[in-house]
């Protein structure tokens, strides 16, 4: 058994190239990454993929027996094609052994076929959410999020949200510092929450999207200062009411919920890479007092700043 966390990427017939490549790239083994990737299929050999590409995998389902995390990339015709029975059995066995299962895009259909998503929240690419709900009515399909974390089973929306899911897992395993380094390597946004809305084509364009992105960047640079809804709206040059409504549409959070999570996220990074006391960190991230930081830290992350530092500090 590898000393690193083993990530198996399970390639099914019709697999989408980007969905296969994302976990393989994010978790690729290097000095800073305590992961090992194994790309496998229902059987060793050639697997016909989507978009004119095929895959030659060296391992079959036996790779899942050693995996700590199993990724199922999206694949073509998920609403009409059941995964092979052997694949379903191997996913169930991996989960029973303690492996966590994760799907990108339509890979959620394969996880749903195991029954492990029954009664749980899940998502998939917005184009397939209604079909997932119709085919697996016991799954609580959420079409308005980038990814869903149910602990030992996770699902994500379209391809780019697979990056968000992978970064979320790195952050969960090893903290914000490593996750941010991986994001920089990928030239990706360091943090988009699972609750952020999927991009769904709309008949009315959103001309203020770029302006709001600039306001979010401005807010991140001013977290230590008092940030009010009015101050954010003034920076965006719209009314507070318009800013609040469109911000929720863009991110899945109210402006002040987003600011709070950004402050907690900055506190996490300071806990990892500095020796500052909790009261000093609370002041630097705009939460005022150590008690206030502890309250919001526990509410959002389910742990204390001290425990977090003990777990993730270098």
UniProtKB/TrEMBL annotation:
<keyword id="KW-0805">Transcription regulation</keyword>
<dbReference type="GO" id="GO:0043565">
    <property type="term" value="F:sequence-specific DNA binding"/>
</dbReference>
<dbReference type="Pfam" id="PF12833">
    <property type="entry name" value="HTH_18"/>
</dbReference>
<feature type="domain" description="HTH araC/xylS-type">
    <location>
        <begin position="213"/>
        <end position="311"/>
    </location>
</feature>
<dbReference type="InterPro" id="IPR002818">
    <property type="entry name" value="DJ-1/PfpI"/>
</dbReference>
<dbReference type="InterPro" id="IPR029062">
    <property type="entry name" value="Class_I_gatase-like"/>
</dbReference>
<keyword id="KW-0804">Transcription</keyword>
<dbReference type="Pfam" id="PF01965">
    <property type="entry name" value="DJ-1_PfpI"/>
</dbReference>
<dbReference type="GO" id="GO:0003700">
    <property type="term" value="F:DNA-binding transcription factor activity"/>
</dbReference>
<dbReference type="InterPro" id="IPR009057">
    <property type="entry name" value="Homeodomain-like_sf"/>
</dbReference>
<dbReference type="InterPro" id="IPR018060">
    <property type="entry name" value="HTH_AraC"/>
</dbReference>
<protein>
    <submittedName>
        <fullName>Transcriptional regulator GlxA family with amidase domain</fullName>
    </submittedName>
</protein>
<dbReference type="InterPro" id="IPR052158">
    <property type="entry name" value="INH-QAR"/>
</dbReference>
């Amino acid at each position: 058994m590898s000393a690193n966390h083993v990530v198996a990427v399970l390639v099914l017939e019709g697999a989408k190239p980007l969905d296969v490549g994302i976990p393989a790239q994010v978790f690729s083994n290097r000095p800073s990454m305590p992961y090992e990737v194994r790309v496998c299929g229902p059987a060793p050999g050639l697997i016909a993929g989507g978009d004119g590409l095929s895959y030659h995998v060296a391992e079959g389902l036996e790779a899942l027996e050693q995996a700590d995390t199993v990724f199922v990339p999206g694949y073509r015709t998920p609403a009409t094609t059941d995964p092979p029975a052997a694949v379903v059995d191997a996913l169930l066995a991996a989960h029973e052994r303690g492996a966590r299962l994760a799907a990108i895009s339509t890979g959620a259909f394969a996880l749903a076929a195991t029954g492990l998503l029954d009664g749980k929240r899940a998502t998939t690419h917005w184009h397939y959410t209604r079909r997932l709900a119709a085919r697996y009515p016991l799954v609580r399909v959420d079409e308005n999020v980038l990814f869903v974390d149910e602990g030992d089973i996770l699902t994500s929306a379209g391809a780019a949200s697979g990056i968000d899911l992978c970064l979320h897992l790195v952050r969960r395993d090893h903290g914000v510092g490593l996750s941010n380094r991986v994001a920089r390597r990928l030239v990706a946004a360091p943090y988009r929450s699972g609750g952020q809305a999927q991009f769904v084509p709309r008949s009315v364009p959103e001309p203020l999207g770029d302006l709001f992105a600039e306001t979010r960047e401005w807010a991140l640079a001013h977290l230590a200062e008092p940030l009010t809804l009015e101050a954010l709206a003034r920076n965006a040059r719209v009314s507070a009411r318009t800013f609040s409504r469109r911000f929720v549409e863009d991110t899945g959070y109210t402006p002040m919920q987003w600011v709070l999570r950004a402050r907690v996220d900055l506190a996490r990074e300071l806990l990892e890479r500095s020796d500052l006391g909790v009261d000093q960190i609370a002041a630097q991230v705009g939460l005022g007092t150590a008690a206030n930081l502890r309250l919001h830290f526990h509410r959002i992350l389910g742990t204390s700043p001290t425990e977090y530092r003990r777990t993730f500090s270098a």
